[in-house]
Write the structure tokens for this entry.
Amino acid sequence: MGQPQLVESASVGDNPRAHWPEELQAEFDQAGDNGIVGSVLVSETELVRVWHLTLPPGVRCNFHKHVLHYFWSCHTHGKARGWYDDGRVQDVVHTPGETKHFKFGKGESFTHSVQNIGDTELVFTTVEFIKDSPNEPLALPESVRLQEES
């Protein structure tokens, strides 16, 4: 994996995202406690939530909030742009097997969005740790859960 390339730094002043397009700022403001961190929740127990995230070229996932300890692993080659709550915009090249781990203290979180800016599909698995995190999991709508075939 290449090192993240900073595309834009945070804006000076009260709104670190002031340099973002207005529609992205509005979407960020409306995200609130959106805990949908993937395309589909494929498994959930009292211990973990397992997500798949699939981003075709040009697609950006909605802004979402992380409050639980988690890790993600990438399954494909590709290039992504991250939009972060602190105002940063970064590009990164992803490779199969690349994995990143994150931990949060009580009351800590971060909100972001990921856009596929490459020409190949990006596929990730994210595992959130419910039991071992200091924060309560965010509520999720039933529509994000994998629907079993009948």
